[in-house]
Amino acid sequence: MAAKYFGTDGIRGRVGVAPITPDFVMRLGYAAGKVLAKARDGVARPTVLIGKDTRISGYMLEAALEAGFAAAGVDVMLAGPVPTPAVAYLTRALRLSAGVVISASHNPFHDNGIKFFSASGNKLPDAVEADIEAALEQPMDCVPSEKLGKARRLDDAQGRYIEFCKSTFPNALDLYGMTIVVDCAHGAAYNIAPHVFHELGAEVITIGNKPNGLNINEACGATAPQALSDSVRANRADLGIALDGDADRLLMVDASGRIYNGDELLYLMVKDRLATGPVDGAVGTLMTNMALQVAFKKMGIPFERAKVGDRYVLEVLQEKGWLLGGEGSGHLLCLDKHTTGDGIVSALQVLSALKRSGQSLAQMTADIKLFPQSLVNVKIPAGYDWKSNAALQAEKLAVEESLGDRGRVLLRPSGTEPLIRVMVEAEDADLARSMAQRIADKVL
């Protein structure tokens, strides 16, 4: 059965509009608490960690969740503003029943969301989410007073996570002599990321570190990296690091101001690992640039594509038993370092690669050139069955045969609008544009 509330990254929407309302979120806390309590039947009282980003709505939703969990007899630990991957780490490190993040990631401040981590620091299995949705359909009740949950603040949650991040950087290396600009997107990492890089020896210049509840992701961070590029050049820095609002995405900038996306950073990390040992394989998504597929084939490294979304990248990595994967948007996974995508930890893996090689970002990625992409959005009527359009499928096949191993075609519907997205990658930008338009003209 299709999920009613849970999407690929928890429950997300505009604050004040169902389901991101205080009454629903309290019921969600109660339902999740009842599911967790049942799973821990006969064991100690379940305890859940709640973390959040810097959105003004976080206060309201945190209080609602806390009340719901307490009514279900679940204790709560409050971490305050911390990155999403910090909740995953702390939940696992403290042997808690689950972790909850209040964040809408890279979305603007008026959105918010709720996502869960299991006791192992992974996204909740679909079956558990289904159990929570089923519990949401039942009336909300309350355990007897003597069994109500209690809440307490987790002391030094930020400091604990800072030490964890640093532990993923080799002990034999440091960042002394480097000047790094860190853009925290006025988000959850504003009081964490600068300390991580500074304590490893870098001179840190921080931007996007003055959250006011309304400015998260606004013209800054991984979704708007031009601000970082400008700051790196203005400060004559060696590198720039851009995170998003909940710090699970990473983009980087070199001394010239050039921006490196997640595809390029994944390639760099795989290349670095290959220099010190075998790499079993790497995972991208349907949107990962074809240049990576070609490069990994030359390197003898198996490559798989998952559906768009870091959740699906993680699923394929776990299925294959591989360690490295990511998306062009900056979600990068290093499963021997963390159970989930982590912008700070990923930046440290890139920095350690640069230190080990003695090369710059440009030098380490000089042997890969991303294929130009052309994207055409075609509006379609509601319910239109584009897959049954014989002319469209024939044109797609003709373009694919024409491109051969010099490009690829991807057709996919938008998840939020009545659109078909026609994407063509080719070694030549003009060729990509003309081929994409050819296919787009056959959609209707």
From TrEMBL:
Keywords: Isomerase, Magnesium, Metal-binding, Phosphoprotein. Its EC number is 5.4.2.10. The active site is at S105 (phosphoserine intermediate). InterPro entries: A-D-PHexomutase_a/b/a-I, A-D-PHexomutase_a/b/a-I/II/III, A-D-PHexomutase_a/b/a-II, A-D-PHexomutase_a/b/a-III, A-D-PHexomutase_C, A-D-PHexomutase_C_sf, A-D-PHexomutase_CS, Alpha-D-phosphohexomutase_SF. Its cofactor is Mg(2+). GO terms for molecular function: phosphoglucosamine mutase activity. Residues 4-138, 160-257, 261-367 form the Alpha-D-phosphohexomutase alpha/beta/alpha domain. This is Phosphoglucosamine mutase. It comes from Herbaspirillum chlorophenolicum. The gene is glmM.
